[in-house]
Amino acid sequence: MRAIYILPILALVVFGALSSIFIVDERQKVLVLQFGQVKQVKETPGLGFKIPFLQDVVSYDDRILALPTPPLEVTMDDDRRLVVDAFARWKIVDLVKFRESVGAGGIEKAQLLLAGILNNAIPEVLGKVASNRVLSEDRTGLMNQIRDIARSEAKSLGVDVVDVRLTRTDLPVQNLEATYARMRAEREREAADEIARGNEAAQRVRASADRTVVELTSEARKNAEVIRGEADAQRNAIYAEAFGRDPEFFAFTRSLTSYERALQAGNSSIVLKPDSEFFDYLRTEKAPTKGAAVAE
Q1: Which one, of 45, 68, 56, 46, lies nearest residue 20 by Cα?
Q2: I need a labelling partner for 111 at 20 to 30 A (CA). Which of 67, 101, 135, 199 fits?
C-alpha cells in the first residue's frame, strides 16, 4: 500500500525538480519572472533554477540583431527630396529595462520602436545638409550622427544601437524622371556645342585649304605665264634671227604654213582673186617681190 502512495510522490518530486531547472544557451539571455515581475536575470550560459509552477523563464537573443528600415523620403537642406533606406545593428544590453519597455512584445516590439527612432533621426540629420553630401561616398560622418542620436534615444529601451548604415539614397520617381530629362537635355546641348565647334573648325580648315589652293593656283599660273612669255620671247627671237638671216626663206616657210592651215579639209571656204598675193608661191618658181600674205 505504501508503494502506491510513494510512486506518485516520487514522480511529482522528479517532475518538480526537472521543472525547476532551465538551460541558458550561450546565444541567449534569460529573465525569470514571477507574476510578471523580474525575479532573476541570467546572462551567462549554463544551468539555472526557478520555482516550478510559480516562475516563468523568458529568453532573449544576446547576439547583434539587424534592423532594415522602410524607405523614407527626406527633404534636404537644398530642397531636394531623397528616398533613403537605412540598416541598423543593435543589441540588448539591459534585460530588465528591455522587459519593462517592450513587455511581452519582445524582439518584434523592440524592432518597431527602434524603427520609429531611426525614422526620426534620419530626417533630423540629413535635413541639415545638402543632397550632394549625402549622395557622395564621404557620408560616414552623417551615418555616425544618426547612430549617436538613435543610441541616445534607445537607451531607455535597454538596447544599444551598434551601427547605422545608409544603404540607398535615390531621388523619388518623379524627380528621377525630371533629372534624367534634364541630364539628357544637358548632354544634347553639349553635343550640339561640340558639333557647332567641329563645324566651325571644319569651315576654318576648308577656308584655309581653299585659300591655299587659290594661292598655289595663282602662283602656278603666274609662273606659267612667265615661262610662256619667256618661251614666246625666245621663239620670237629665233624667228627674228632666222628672218634676219634669210627673209625670203622665212617668207616662203610662213606661206607654206599658211597654205597648210587654210587648205585643210573642213575649213571654211575662201574666195580670193586669182592675182591675190596669197597664191604668189603657187604661180612662180621665184619668190615674189613682196612678202606673201600669211593667213593665221
Answers
A1: 56
A2: 135
